[in-house]
Amino acid sequence: MTTATVHAPLPVSEKPYLPERMAAEWRRLRAAGLLLDTERMARFVADGFLRFESIVPDELNRAVLAGIADGTVTGGGGYHGDPLWSTFAEDHPIGKVFRLPAVRGIIASLVGPEPQYDHHAVHVVQARTGYAQMWHADAAIDAKPHFDIQIMYYPHAVTRPMGGTLILPGSQFRMIHEAEAARYQNFRGQVHTVCPAGTLQIVHHNIWHCAQPNSTDTTRYMFKLRLNPTVRQQRLWNAGDLASAKIHGILNTAQPWHGSDSRLEYINRIKLWRLLIGDPTWDDSLWLGRIENDPQTLISE
Amino acid sequence: MPARQQLLVLWLSHSDPGSGICAWSRYDAAGSDTGKSGDQDAPPYDSALSAMRDGWRVVQYPIAPTPASGDEFRLGFLKHEFVLERLVETP
Fold it and tell me: What is the pLDDT of residues A141-156, one digit of tens each?
C-alpha cells in the first residue's frame, strides 16, 4: 500500500452518499494504490479481523491521547446513523486519523468510501485493573449476510501485561447475542492484542472479543469506531488480482478452536465470499457445489 | 469437613471424550482457581478423558442434536460441552 496523496474526502457541507461521487472517490483510492488486495480481503473473511500496525503516525497518536485527556476526543457518541465525514472535522485528532489516505483505503475496501458513522467509544482500562471482561459480540445478534466493521485504534503501544483486547479469530459466523458467550474463558487460538502505537484492528461486527486485565501502572486506551456500509459491498477492494490470488489456503484453513465445525466454517466463508465477489456460483473444494448439485437431465423412459 | 465443588467445562472437537479441547473454563468453590477470560494459553488437559484419569467426574455428556432443516450451516455456541466436577474437602 502506498501513501500517495489523494483528494480529501467529502466536505461536510455536501449531501452524502451520492453514488457518482462515491464511485469517483473509490476509483481515486484504487488508482493511488490504497485499497486492500484480494488476499487481505480473504483473510478478513476467514479470520474476521485485520491488523495494521503503526499505521497512524506518532504525532497524531499523541494528539489523540491529549484529546482524550482534555475532552476534545469525547468518550462516546453516535447511534444516529450520521455520515462519517460529517462527524469528525478535518482538524479534529480523530478526524485526521480516519482521513489518513491509508486508513481511507482500508475503510473504502470494506464498507465503501462514505460509510455511515454508527457510534464510537473510548475504552479505558485503568492501571491495576484485575477485571477480565466476558467474551461477547457487540450490539445485538446480527445475522445479516454482509457486515459492519469496527475499528479498534490503539494510540499507544500495548504490551501483554496491559491487557489489550482479546480476539477470537474466526468467530464472526457464530450467532450469539452479546455476552451469551460468557461461559467460555479460554479458546485455543485466541489472540491477545499486543501492538505498537498507532495500530488499527478492523473487525467484523460479529467478532467475539473482550477487554483484558491491566496489571501495569499505566492506563490503557482504545478508540473504537463502528461503521455501516452505504454501498453494496461487492469488489470494493482492488480485485484486479482476484484470478491469481492464493485464497484457497486462506479460506480452507480452520482455527484451532473450530473442531468438527471447521467445514461448516468453510461453507460460511464461501457464502460471504460469493457475496463479496458478486458470483453466487463461486466455490472452493466443492464444499457447497456438491450440496447444491441438483441435476435435472432425464435419461430414463 | 464440608466438600466443595470444582467444575471444569471442556468443549471438545468431537463428541468423543478422548478428542481434543477447543475451549475451557474453570470454577472453583473450594479455592481460588476460578478462571477468567484469557487467563490461560493452553488447556489443562489434552481431552476430557485425560481429565477423568486425573480424578474429574463427568456430570454432563453432550447431546448431539440434528440441525433443523434449512439451518444446517448456521453456527453458534460450541458443541460437545463436557462438564466435569471434583469434590474437594475444605477446612
Answer: 999 999 999 999 999 9
Residue B10 contacts A, CB cutoff 8 Å? no
Distances (CA, A) of A133 to A22, A68, A129, A161, A206: 39, 22, 11, 15, 17
- CA of B70: how far to CAs of A27, A146, A294, B66, B73, in Å? 40, 19, 16, 11, 8
Tell me the residue length of chain B: 91
- The number of distinct structural domains making up chain B is 1
The per-residue pLDDT for B91 is 78
Helices (H), chain A: 19-31, 38-47, 58-70, 93-99, 101-111, 248-251, 262-277, 289-292
Q: Measured between alpha carbons, how far is A225 from A84 in angstroms, rounded to an integer?
A: 10
Count the alpha carbons within 13 Å of A301 in the hemisphere toward its beta carbon.
Answer: 0
Q: Which residue's C-alpha cell is 474437594?
A: B88
| pLDDT of A1 over the 80 cut | no
Residues of B with CB below 8 A from A254's CB?
Answer: none
Judged by CB atoms closer than 8 Å, whether chains meet at A176 and B14 is answered as: no
> Residue A257 is nearest to which of B22, B38, B41, comparing CB atoms?
B22
Mean pLDDT, all residues of chain A: 95
Cell of A250: 486462506
pLDDT at A10: 62
ipTM here: 0.97
Contact B76 A174 (CB under 8 A): yes
Give a three-class secondary structure readout of A267-300: HHHHHHHHHHHCCCCCCCCCCCHHHHCCCCCCCC
- Stretch A179-190: mean pLDDT: 97
Under a CB-based contact definition with an 8 Å cutoff, are residues A138 and A150 in contact? yes
Query: What is the rounded CA–CA span in Å between residue A205 and residue A49?
Result: 10
The answer to whether residue B8 neighbours chain A at the CB level (below 8 Å) is no
Structural domains present in chain A? 47-91+115-228 (2.60.120.620)
**Whole domain around residue B79: which residue ranges?**
3-89
**A102 in Cβ contact with A3 (< 8 Å):** yes
